[in-house]
Amino acid sequence: MFWVFEHKKYQEVEGGLDYITKFLGSDINLSGRVADVLYDGDHSLKIQLGAGNSIFGLSFTKYTGYTGEAEGIYGYINHELIKTKLTFSANLNYTGYKLGKYDDSRATALGGILGLTWRPDPRISIDGQGQVLVNDVYKYDTRFLVGFNYWLFSKL
After folding, report:
1. Is residue 30 part of a domain?
2. Residue 144 belongs to what domain range?
3. Do residues 104 and 140 share a domain?
4. In the chain, how many domains are there?
């Protein structure tokens, strides 16, 4: 098991705002959150800003304090290729991070996902997803996942 910091009890205080507005004829959710994680004698601050809807989105996250420093940006897109039958999805994220007070070097990570979801019936979906991660720890990691879902109940 790999720990970046010693595991201890903590408390987290978070606040945020969400606002939905129209942009190019579509509802866009604008959001912002700030959280402070309180450890015994230390703390870590997390800031998140984002904009998006069910089709696309972009967000930024920043961490500072006891758990190290990191800044990341994340974007996604979902597109129905065949209405209610076939959906394409993609996301990309980039992070720069420093692992605490004792190591001044910065590392980066780049990750991405491409996926397809096929729904031959409204209660059945078959998902295929390719993932790639490039960073200083794993160098280059790829995976392909397949999932099958079946809804047993339509109403409870």
Report:
1. yes
2. 75-156
3. yes
4. 2
C-alpha distances in Å from residue 68, one per residue of 7, 97, 99, 100: 14, 7, 5, 4
Per-residue DSSP letter, 138? T
What residue type is assigned to position 86 of the chain? Answer: L
Residues 6+ apart with CB under 8 A from 80: 86, 87, 88
pLDDT digits (tens, 9 = 90+) for 105-141: 888 999 999 999 999 998 999 999 999 999 887 788 9
Whether 63 and 93 map to the same domain: the answer is no
d(CA 82, CA 91): 20
Burial (0-12, 13-18, 19+ Cβ within 10 Å), 78 = middle
CA 19 to chain CA centroid, nearest Å: 20
pLDDT at 40: 81
Amino acid identity at 57: G
